[in-house]
Specification:
Structural class: alpha/beta
Low-confidence stretches: 244-248
Number of strands: 11
Strand content: 15-25%
Order of helices and strands: HEHEEHHHHEHEEEHEHEHEEH
Bound molecules: zinc ion
Largest sheet: 6 strands, parallel
Radius of gyration: 19 Å
Helix content: 25-40%
Length: 248
Amino acid sequence: MDNRLMEWIEASNNIVFFGGAGTSTESEIPDFRSQKGLYSCKYGDYSPETILSHSFFIRHPDVFYKFCREKIFFIDAKPNKTHLALAKLEKEGRLSAVITQNIDGLHQLGGSINVLELHGTIHKNYCMNCGKSYDLAYVAEPGNAVPICKACGGIVRPDIVLYEEALDMKVFQAAAEHIRDADLLIVGGTSLVVYPAAGLVSEFIGGKLVLINKQATPCDEKADLVIHESIGYTLEHAVFGGKENETG
Ligand code: ZN
């Protein structure tokens, strides 16, 4: 593998990482968008995008939660090499923020502190009536068809951004600011076709842009370095194990 990424990481003290589903697939969390099949239930056949929409959640919270428990609530998932490498870079003072489209909380489990979750997190849940907070274990409980607030009987929902819902603009603005200030932007595991991913990358104005994704993305032409390879493998090489493999 060529060593440019490693060299740029070593020369930088303001790296920003922006990642998507591909960051988590190596923790065996499937990308629900890549599951082409429909989800069948007693109400009919639905796409994941339909089930994870605001109006569907309001109409069929039981189906919504059944889907989430099978496809989204991975309570035992462990951080992988990507998460650990990024946490190490933050600890060393090289990385200022991780921006993620994922909702699995694995960056924090891997040790990252400054994580901007554009689509929220499954680890935070709240009562839609009184606002009381609940953890993932409470809503992931299989017997708990639709989780109900213990304080007021309201429906508890995950603090994730559903289809038809707006992003949290405070998180989005903070992400854009980090990207504008960065001297090295590493984009990984995202096809950059889902809003607002491509827009955020276009905020980047200085330094090096590195794209790591198994497939080509619409931004490949703008990047200083494109790596069509596993992101865990790539970052492990660049952050942990590069030196002994160096061939000059
Ligand atoms: Zn409540």
